[in-house]
Amino acid sequence: MITITPLGLAIGLIVLAVIVGAALMYMRKRHSDHLRDRFGGEYDRTVREAGNAHRGETILHEREKRVASFDIRPLSEESRARYVEAWRKVQARFVDSPADAVTRADVLLGEVMEERGYPVVDFEQRSADLSVDHGDVVQNYRAGHAIAERRSRGEAGTEDLRQAMIHYRALFDDLVHEPVDSSPVIEGRDGRIHDMRKDRTFSREKLHD
Fold first, then answer.
1. Are residues 54 and 100 in the same domain?
2. Which 3-state string (H, E, C) describes 58-113?
C-alpha cells in the first residue's frame, strides 16, 4: 500500500496547479491569437477602447457569436457585376457632385451588405458586425462615414470627400471580393479630368502632358 505523506500531497497539488495554469495560459493565448488573426487592426482598437485585453476579447467574442447566427453568403456573379458597374457610376459622379457621390457610395455599401446577409441596423452595430470578417478594412468604413457626417454639417471639403470615397472603396472591394477595374482618373460631363488620388481637376490635354 502506497502511503502519501502530507509533503508529497502538497508537492503533487503544486505540480497539478502548475500544469492546469500552464494549460489555461496556453488556451488563453490560442484564443487571443485567433482573435488577432480574425479581427486584424480591429483587435487593437477594441482592446484599447475596452481598457484591457480581457474586456476587449470578450467584446470581440460576443461579436463572433452574433455574426455566426447570420446567413452570410457570397454575391452571385450577376450581383457582383451589377455592383461593380454601380460603383463605377458612383465614382464618375464624384467629378460633378462630390457630396452626392459620397452619399450614393454609402447607400451602395448598405445594399451590398444587405445582400450579403448583414442585417439592417444602426451604423455602430453594422460596423461591429462587419469587423468580424472584415476587420482590416472596417476602419475605412468608419472613417468614410465620419467624413459623410461632417459633410452633412458643411464641415467637409472636396479633399475630405475624396478621402471618404477611397475609404468606402476599400470596404466595397473587400465585400464584393473583386477589385473594381476602374481608373482613379475619371472624366466629368464637361470633359475635364479628375484624379481621385489627388484633389486635382484638369483638361484632357493636360492629362497627356
1. no
2. HHHHHHHHHHHCCCCCCCCHHHHHHHHHHHHHHHHHHHHCHHHHHHHHHHHHHHHH
Residues 142 and 166 in one domain: yes
CA gap 102, 151 in Å, rounded: 9
Domain count, the chain: 2
Q: Which residues pair with 186 in a beta bridge?
A: 194
Domain endpoint, select from 51, 68, 85: 68
Nearest to 111 by CA among 83, 78, 76, 69: 83
| Tens-place pLDDT, residues 112-152 | 999 999 998 889 999 999 999 998 899 999 999 999 999 88
Cα–Cα distance, 104 to 69 (Å, whole number): 29
pTM: 0.71
Range of the domain at 158: 77-207
* Last-in-domain residue among 17, 45, 68: 68
pLDDT tens digit sequence for 17-75: 677 666 666 566 776 888 888 888 888 999 999 999 989 999 998 998 899 889 999 99
**What DSSP element (H or E) covers 204?**
helix 204-207
Closest CA relative to residue 48, chosen from 118, 139, 133? 139
Q: Please, what sign has the CA dihedral across residues 126, 70, 113, 45? A: positive
Claim to verify: residue 87 and residue 146 sit in the same structural domain: yes
Give me 37's grid cell.
488573426
